[in-house]
Amino acid sequence: MYAIVRAGGRQEKVSVGDVLLIDKTSGVAGDEIQLQPLLVVDGGTVTSDASKLAKVKVTAEVVKAAKGPKITILKYKNKTGYRKRQGHRQPLTQVKITAIDA
Fold this sequence. Notes:
The strands form two sheets. Strands 1, 2, 3, 4, 5, 6 and 9 form a seven-stranded antiparallel beta sheet that branches. With 102 residues, this protein is mainly β. It has one domain (2-101). 4% of the residues lie in helices and 65% in strands.
């Protein structure tokens, strides 16, 4: 059994026991959060109807706060001496899928 869930601005394929990184959510380690299912596959049964998906719960446990990879931004203009360097690391949350209740 697996589900396609909305996690931040992306869609992720999850099953019970998976650990994944999603956009930062409010919550500390040990908290439980609900993810919105978009599609549920249980053997040969595929559920994508909105009224049936309203009854499905995908539960995840917050493992820890994390950061994405370092991204370096460099701006440069020729012959003017203008040079600007900047870095960014996206804040993320690591979660573990604990249950998919269909």
